[in-house]
Amino acid sequence: MAALAARPGFPVRISNFLFAQQPGTELRFWEEQTATGDRGLNHAISRLNGYVLRGAGEVLAWSAHDYENFLAPRPELTAHAIEQTTAVARVVASHQWPIRIHATYDETISAVLDVFEQVFSETGYPARWAIDHAETITPRNIARVKAMGGGMAVQNRLSFSGEYFAERYGRQAAAQAQPLRQLVDAGIPVGADTDGTRPASYNPWVSLYWMVTGKTVGGSQITSPGSRISREEALRLYTAGSAWFSGE
């Protein structure tokens, strides 16, 4: 990435978050990364191109990674997964690196917030942190994220898999999934993206359509009006909202 950013005319600006690529190497990876002190490393030639190393995410520990495959049952986090997440979070937070963490289900979010509350208190963590995805987050955990000063990154994965979600968890649960209205009204920093290209398309218009209508690409009505947001709000999440995550 540094070599690409150094090329004249490099046309994009990218904020990078790092995570260990191999399960079992997470703690060693972050001990090495934080020792270099390269958080915030700026290879941007201008505000419009180059890249900036922003922080840690979205996988702190692979054992706590609750995938978004709604054809499969919700994964249960083990005590070992919590221990690994706590150990990595403590290293990252003690060096004040920004954090983003993948959490699809409210059960995972509860466990993650328990870890963060403990670790952030221990380390006096002052940096920016956020949860990615959060399709089934509940009002209780929305309030906890707000109280802890966190942000939320939301995507349109359900626009491609909403039918699978509804089949597994029921139409009532699907209608309440991804409560964008509640997140925006709570005053939490919220940014939008697509999570392309593995679970969704990179096309932002599909995501904007989902946020406004709650309909899948197959035409199924999934979320209720009480979970959806306006076109103007959706555009704001894609612009000013997402700028919060890169500190701009």
Give a structural overview.
There is one protein chain. This protein is an alpha/beta fold and 248 residues long. The chain has a single domain, classed as Metal-dependent hydrolases (TIM Barrel, Alpha-Beta Barrel), CATH 3.20.20.140. Helices cover 42% and strands 12% of the residues. It has helices spanning 2-5, 26-36, 79-94, 106-123, 139-147, 158-169, 171-175, 180-186, 204-213, 231-243, and strands spanning 13-18, 50-56, 99-103, 129-133, 151-154, 190-192. Strands 3-4-5-6 form a four-stranded parallel sheet. Helix 5 (139-147) links the parallel strand 4 (129-133) and strand 5. Helix 2 (26-36) packs parallel to helix 3 and helix 3 crosses helix 4 (106-123). The chain is globular, with a radius of gyration of 18 Å.
The count of helical stretches stands at 10
Number of strands: 6
The overall number of domains is 1
Secondary-structure element pattern, one letter each = HEHEHEHEHEHHHEHH
Task: Specify the oligomeric state.
Answer: single chain
Proportion of helical residues? 40-55%
CATH homologous superfamily annotation: Metal-dependent hydrolases
- Mean pLDDT across all amino acids: 91
CATH architecture type:
Alpha-Beta Barrel
Work out the strand percent. Answer: 5-15%
- Secondary structure class reads alpha/beta
Main beta sheet: 4 strands, parallel
CATH topology: TIM Barrel
* Distance, first to last CA: 21 Å
Strand sequence of the main sheet, in spatial order? 3-4-5-6
- CATH class wording: Alpha Beta
Shape: globular
